[in-house]
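Per reviewer request, we include the raw input and output of the structure prediction for the construct analysed in the revised manuscript.
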Amino acid sequence: MDDLRSAAREAWIYCVPLIELARVRTQIAALAPQRGGAGINAFFHRRGLATPADRGLITPNVDTLYSAAFVDLGNGPVTVALPASGERYFSLHLLDMYTNSFAVLGTRTTGGDGGTFMLVGPRDAAPDGVIRAPTSWILALARISVDDADVLNAIHKIQDEVVLKPTPARVVGSFANRESAWAEYFSSASALLAESPPPATDLAVLRRIAPLG
């Protein structure tokens, strides 16, 4: 019994990223009617700087504008075009469903001239220069530094020039949240693990929680 209790505790913690990102994904998909049909595979831009009262992100930077998109690679590759940002810091942070970072595009890594990049899912062919995502659902988070509030309009133009060219998104399901009863939580966790198979580096954890079925 102690072994099962320990496995359940570890499985609950391990699956929190999946549960949380699935919650965010569902929320974004639900916003589509308010955004002209743009939910999944579309960027949402935060136009104002964060204040200490903001809780949308954990401790957001107060000198940064954010843009975010949930991207579905399940029906084929997605192309993302990034604008030239010059010497202004810009990054597009790509995370898989386990919140693992698998790429950061922008001034520090690919330069300030922008460019076009192709993203593919874990089972698609990936020719040279293509970025392969570990899971077919990913979160794209753009950050642009703001050194003066007077330049916000110029930075809004940079945000607007971050463009996704996706294939049609799949239907987004509903899943449990971290406050759900254990049976509902683990049922959703099992479905999300099947939807986004874990990385091979987590094999040891998967073996420890395997007794849960």
